[in-house]
Specification:
8 strands; alpha/beta; TIM Barrel; 12 helices
Length: about 280
């Protein structure tokens, strides 16, 4: 397997960026994916590197010490009343740290507004040579592959792409053949985790699983092989696998190690040839 792996900050949310970088280095990752845009969620640490100069210095030192790289930052949400300019300091941080991508998602039902603001976020990011990947989320306003592609086509920004989360794809009910039709240029990285096959019946339970109880790859009911084999072979994989119970049992470092090992073991069996599905349809 030559596919590069990153660890998403949600997997080790209570670790500072520097702590996560050192853990990622010791456990075999190639990248880290950081969360320097503070979402103001209850109990979520604030890793606003733009305004925490000591944390920024520590983060830069950790990258220098380990040789790891920053894959992406998150989360540039599109919501009613938001101002894209508020994300500018985080984009500057991403560029200074050598990042490549910005993760975005849409939480407004006003489609025209969403397209306008997403386009503005893309324009801001482009100043720093950053791409913006739009993720569909089952509890957000844009929650399917078709919805996401509609926004991307309407916004029509050259640095915009799509970010597939294996959990979200499974929950959306989208079909693999539709994923296989997407141009390869839209893919820059994807999120990997597993989950129970059956979706929760309540939004609260969906949120809980999303942030607290995702599963090792191959442990649940998501068609991981089908999804991964429908994404271009060289696309980096960011492991987003928060699981509070396992972190309490194992600690962040051992848990991060097992997340990566189980993912590599599964993909070495099920994705070694990448199935050449995209080649069959000329992508």
């Amino acid at each position: 397997m030559t596919r590069p792996f990153s660890i998403a900050h949600l997997t080790a949310l209570n670790c500072t960026p520097a702590e996560m970088i050192y853990i990622a280095s010791r456990t075999g990752y190639d990248f880290v994916s950081l969360r320097p845009i503070n979402m103001g969620l209850p109990g979520e640490p604030n890793y606003d590197l733009a305004n925490n100069k000591q944390m920024m210095r520590d983060t830069k030192a950790a990258f220098a010490d380990t040789g790891l790289r920053l894959l992406d930052i998150e989360l540039a949400r599109i919501f009613d009343g938001m101002d894209p300019l508020n994300y500018l300091p985080a984009f500057e941080v991403a560029a200074e740290l050598g990042g490549r991508h910005v993760l975005s998602s849409i939480w407004t039902d006003n489609r025209n507004y969403a397209i306008e603001k997403f386009g503005e976020v893309c324009d801001l990011a482009k100043q720093f040579d950053l791409t913006v990947e739009l993720e569909f989320v089952p509890i957000a306003s844009v929650r399917s592959l078709a919805d996401t592609l509609n926004i991307l086509h309407s916004a029509n920004r050259s640095n915009a792409g799509i970010m597939i989360d294996t959990h979200h794809f499974h929950r959306s009910g989208d079909q693999l053949e539709d994923l296989q039709k997407i141009p390869s240029s839209y893919f820059r990285y994807f999120h990997l985790c597993d989950a129970p096959s059956q979706a929760p019946t309540s939004v609260d339970e969906m949120k809980r699983i999303l942030r607290e109880e995702r599963l090792y790859v191959g442990e649940g009911g998501v068609d991981i092989a089908g999804i991964v084999n429908s994404i271009p072979v060289n696309t980096p994989c960011s492991i987003e696998m928060p699981n509070i119970k396992r972190v309490k049992e194992l600690g962040y470092e051992e848990y991060a190690r097992r997340c990566l090992e189980t993912a590599k073991d599964f993909l070495s069996i099920h994705a070694t040839e990448e199935k050449s599905l995209r080649k069959k349809i000329g992508l």
